[in-house]
Amino acid sequence: MANFTKWLGAGLGFTLGGPIGAAIGFAIGSFVDGFSEKDLLLEQGEYQSKTQNNRHVNTQSGDFEMSLLVLASIVIKSDGKIDKRELEFVRAQFLSMYGKERANNAFKLFKGIVKKEISARQVCIQIREHMSHASRLQLLHFLFGIAKADEFVTEKEVEEIRKIAGYLYINQRDFTSIKAMFYDESDNAYKILEITKSATDDQLKSAYRKMVKKYHPDKLQDLGKEHLQGAKEKFQSIQTAYEKIKKERGL
Question: What are the residue boundaries of the J domain, all occurrences included (predicted)?
Fold first, then answer.
């Protein structure tokens, strides 16, 4: 248990409290007898005292990790079942980002979180108060990856992610752009760049520059190098979409 709480304390900030903290406490309590959310906060007394007068706490790597776990649990349950392939996707993503020991801790916690009924709205309010727009876009990208893990995205999953996007103050254009990164349709390249097929070549170039700025991996540097791979995947989707349209147009 000592190693587990050390892992929790290493990178947690704003997610210690609120609905995310409650979910974490519930999850730990599901596999550690007598452990509660209160115990989790006591473990982090020093953190609490340091941030008492700082309402806006910076997002840390652990905060992003906990936010992923909680939102992933909501999406996975949205179609009324928990698919093994989706669980394996979560495990694989955490292995690639965090390494075996940290990923095992995270997945152990996830299996507890998924048992709890959680309000997506309340969780998203907590996230958006502390997390940058770029980080929230990265969360959305991860959630679509989970939904696609079983090779079939249900309408219920899409609607749950759409609701989450709205709660996170991610607009419809950004939602459609990220969603298009996971589908193979004729006009997806245009959707990814947030333009239509009627866009001029100058509008295409302008849209590309705008998207490169929005999705550049440097915007997630504060979250730690472990979260940059997902950012690079989004960035590559932008590059691929642009090159595809240029080729179609003979530019």
Answer: 188-250
